[in-house]
Amino acid sequence: MSLAAASFQEAVYEPFTRSSPEEDVGVLQERFSRDGYLFLPGALCASVKPVLDDMLSVLAPHIHWNESVSAPVLAGEPFFESDPLWDELYPEIQALESLHRLFHSAEVQQLMTLVAGAETFVYPMKMARVAAPRKIGFETPPHQDAFSHHAGPTMAGIWIALHDADEAMGRLTILPGSHERGVRPVLEAQGVGGVQCEIYPDETLWHVSDVSAGDVIIFHSQTVHRAQPNVDKQRVRLSVDTRFCDYGAPVFSTNLEPHHGWRIPRLDWEYVYRQWNDTELRYYWRDYPALF
């Protein structure tokens, strides 16, 4: 299997192509079809602070906001997704009503319609990312959601920055146009998800940019993406994401569980919902007509 350009040293980087929700929908859809993603700076700048504040309240005292660097910082030793401390904290993050409600807000729903139909289905599984510094080698390797979510071509991912993040903190990186080459073979790899997809020898150009709070990236289910390592000494990168599709597209059953509910015993929907004020979003997917 070819893994050319799998290391960051061998890759060439260019900034994300910038888009705006105010552009013509046809232009945006053509760009999405060409590049496999849309980068929408500031699209949710007024919406993310409640989620950031709630996540920080759960992560304290291990991670806290530092005004002098305008970022979350780590107190103590770094931890990785599935480490014991992460497993202790993550169910409480998953139980945050603000995390789930963000993706069902009118603002986010409108962004989803830029690449899907007028009616979209938001996957129940919502993800929160905690990229700690000094854990080099444990970042998310290159992968496609079409493989990891058992998804068809109409599914897309939506990733939201909760605060400003620069290169040292590890950024989401996109392989533009990679969605056009189908679903790729995978092999076992260290890092979030545990697998890496094949990277072809001619694929050396990646897109990446610094992000600000409320920046949004929407990407095709077959678009190859990965995280850069967080090489900062203390700053932590926090972000959230989920998947969505046009209403009626098939959704595989593993996407109906809380993120990591398959391996953390107490993390089920009863646990997630136990302190929610609103019942509107509880089990909203049960009547979806295309579960398999």
Q: In summary, what is this structure?
A:
With 292 residues, the protein is of the alpha+beta class. The chain contains seven helices and 13 strands.
Radius of gyration: 18 Å
User: Given the C-alpha coordinates, what overall shape results?
Assistant: globular
DSSP strand (E) fraction?
15-25%
Spans of 5+ residues with little confidence (pLDDT < 50)? Answer: 1-5
CATH superfamily: q2cbj1_9rhob like domain
The number of distinct β-strands equals 13
Strand order of the largest sheet: 2-11-6-13-5
> Which percent range fits the helix content?
10-25%
How would you sum up this structure, described in words?
The chain is an alpha+beta fold. It has one domain (29-273): Sandwich (Jelly Rolls), CATH 2.60.120. It is built from seven helices and 13 strands. The chain has helices at residues 25-35, 49-59, 84-94, 97-102, 106-112, 145-148, 269-273, and strands spanning 12-14, 37-40, 63-66, 71-74, 120-131, 156-161, 172-174, 186-188, 195-197, 205-207, 216-220, 225-227, 237-246. The protein is globular, with a radius of gyration of 18 Å.
Output the keywords.
about 290 residues, alpha+beta, Jelly Rolls, 5-stranded antiparallel β-sheet, 7 helices, 13 strands, globular, disordered N terminus
SSE map:
Elements: E1 12-14, H1 25-35, E2 37-40, H2 49-59, E3 63-66, E4 71-74, H3 84-94, H4 97-102, H5 106-112, E5 120-131, H6 145-148, E6 156-161, E7 172-174, E8 186-188, E9 195-197, E10 205-207, E11 216-220, E12 225-227, E13 237-246, H7 269-273
Parallel strand pairs: 1-10
Antiparallel strand pairs: 2-11, 3-4, 5-13, 6-11, 6-13, 7-12, 8-9
